[in-house]
């Protein structure tokens, strides 16, 4: 049976980290909320699960695999990893992969808050001044700190610096690709500069983009373009001069 | 060998979620950064691990257990749970417990950002106005949304509403206790009101506080008092009138 991915239609958002793993593995999945109500899909089908499940996810994305329902992006990937062949073999390395993924999660929250530093109940336009201050801090302090960490852990990988964990592709590699994509969309000048100092991150990003299934996916209609409703938004005023 | 917990001394912070699990289990652990440099402990010992480890944690807290080094609060608890007898038996329930813990993590980030909405590089005093706006949103929208979710999942637990997962104590119960403690310290009026509408959460909180080892711990010097350097801070102006 196909995996069912539930996430808000119209944005890449957190769902994209799961989508990339499903696409790389080449498995069947239904992107439920992007489907049509007449097929029993769509946003209402998603909200129904959130309202009625015995283990209701706090928020999307969540995944249904038969009887298993799991929310939280990093937990979804932890669950899917072994099934998709995208997780390391040893328990210790699986925990390390998960720890990396949770650090990706932290950065995603901070990226979101650059345009919504005060409240998600308000529009960006109602918190633009605060967003500019938060984004300046994010560009100056936070992105470099995270990028340096990713570069360091690539450098220290005893199996080589082509992957975050071990000698082959695992799901955190795909998520790091997506982080670089998203941050480069939101803050192109900042990222262009930073990627020069983090060549291993840049190289992993490029290698992922060239993987056949990822390449096909990125050119398909399944890949929603970045836009200003998502987590990574390009507001030129947030990148300063 | 004793577990080694690494976290900033002087605050409960994220380390406290791990401490509560270790204390409830009654196992030996060393709170490394709170120790003395002449014993090879203290902050420098912590920073050394962060700077030199093959798998360096992005941030504290992290835990060392022999050869295993693991960071990210939720990942530490996922690792420790089975060893401490604080995790459910089935794989599905373990994933659910972890998912709950990751939702606790999300709320902790938001609690922190009420006093630091713009930047952790600035003092609270330099972002007081923004903090007041973010805190108002947090009190009005976010705490209720999370509290309602915890109440709902207690209510829907097929094994009864005394615990979040199954019929006995697991680590997310301890973390929910700590959330209620912290939020009640930071926003006492808000929480007093909300706990009336979430009686299952209130009751679980009280039950945890009466557990013999937790009670002893809370009265010990090992429990650092809440203060205005931690994640949960009491600034009366952030609770409004």
UniProtKB/TrEMBL annotation, chains A, B:
GO molecular function term, any single one: glutathione transferase activity
Location of the GST C-terminal domain: 90-226
Concerning Pfam families, the annotation shows:
GST_C_3 (PF14497)
Signal peptide positions on this chain: none
List this protein's GO terms for biological process. Answer: glutathione metabolic process
Name all GST N-terminal domain ranges. Answer: 1-88
Q: Which domain of life is it from?
A: Bacteria
Q: Which InterPro entries match?
A: Glutathione-S-Trfase_C-like, Glutathione-S-Trfase_C_sf, Glutathione_S-Trfase_N, GST_C, GST_superfamily, Thioredoxin-like_sf
Q: What is this protein called?
A: Glutathione S-transferase
The organism that produces this protein has a lineage beginning with: Bacteria, Pseudomonadati, Pseudomonadota, Alphaproteobacteria, Hyphomicrobiales
């Amino acid at each position: 049976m196909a995996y069912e991915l539930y996430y808000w239609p119209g944005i890449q958002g957190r769902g994209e980290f799961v989508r990339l793993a499903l696409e790389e593995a080449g498995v069947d999945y239904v992107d439920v909320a992007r489907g049509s109500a007449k097929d029993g899909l769509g946003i209402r089908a998603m909200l129904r699960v959130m309202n009625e499940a015995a283990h209701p996810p706090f928020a999307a994305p969540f995944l249904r695999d038969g009887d298993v329902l799991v929310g939280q992006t990093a937990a979804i990937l932890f669950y899917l990893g072994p099934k998709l062949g995208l997780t390391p073999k040893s328990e210790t390395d699986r925990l390390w992969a998960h720890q990396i993924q949770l650090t990706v999660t932290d950065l995603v929250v901070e990226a979101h808050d650059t345009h919504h530093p005060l409240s998600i109940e308000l529009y960006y336009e109602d918190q633009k001044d605060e967003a500019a201050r938060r984004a300046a801090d994010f560009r100056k302090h936070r992105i470099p700190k995270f990028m340096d960490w990713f570069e360091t852990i690539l450098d220290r990988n005893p199996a080589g610096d082509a992957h975050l964990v071990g000698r082959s592709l695992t799901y955190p590699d795909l998520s790091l690709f997506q982080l670089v994509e998203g941050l480069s969309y939101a803050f192109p000048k900042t990222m262009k500069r930073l990627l020069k100092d983090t060549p291993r991150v840049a190289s992993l990003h490029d290698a992922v983009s060239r993987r056949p299934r990822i390449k096909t996916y990125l050119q398909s209609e399944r890949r929603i373009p970045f836009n200003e409703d998502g987590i990574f938004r390009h507001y030129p005023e947030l990148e300063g001069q």
